Amino acid sequence: MKNLKRKIIGGIAVATVFVVGGSYAWASTSDKALDNSDTDKIEITEKEALDTFSDEYGKKVESIELEPTRDGYVYEVESYDDKVEYNTEIDAASGDIIDNKSDKDDDDDDEEETRYELNQKDAIDREKATEIAEKEADSGKAREWKLERVSDDKQTWEVNVLEKGNETEVTMDAENGEVLEVEEDDD
Hints:
Layout: H1 2-35, H2 46-56, E1 60-69, E2 72-80, E3 84-91, E4 97-104, H3 126-137, E5 141-151, E6 154-163, E7 166-173, E8 179-185
């Protein structure tokens, strides 16, 4: 009986080591894959992604984010109408809509969320935002971008610059490129 208990406990211990070790190896591999995403494969500009979105859905856009995934870069468009919030993903290489999810606003919410409509025409483009962020970070390569309307009179670019595991997030005024905040994360 004692022998059986030892075998069971030993088997559980071995399985735990494999699960934890495998998860760690997968996570570190996937982080490296995301960190090394090839920005040269981004074929669609944020304007083209917004045009694709507008042609298909015609909703008010609050933000557009460009981020790496295991399958390449994807634009995520957050939009809304009077009752529903939408989240649409667009492939940055092909311009195809990958996914569209919606979430109805609850009438029971105590606080009403204020939304602001993005005006991409008044914003500097992603290339200019990248240039400013990489200069401000002093080294590294931009890998994530978010253009967002944050108030009635302000929209911002948030650009994440990565260098050897260190990430610098640069937030700037999207209309004139003025750097508003630089946050370093060296985890």
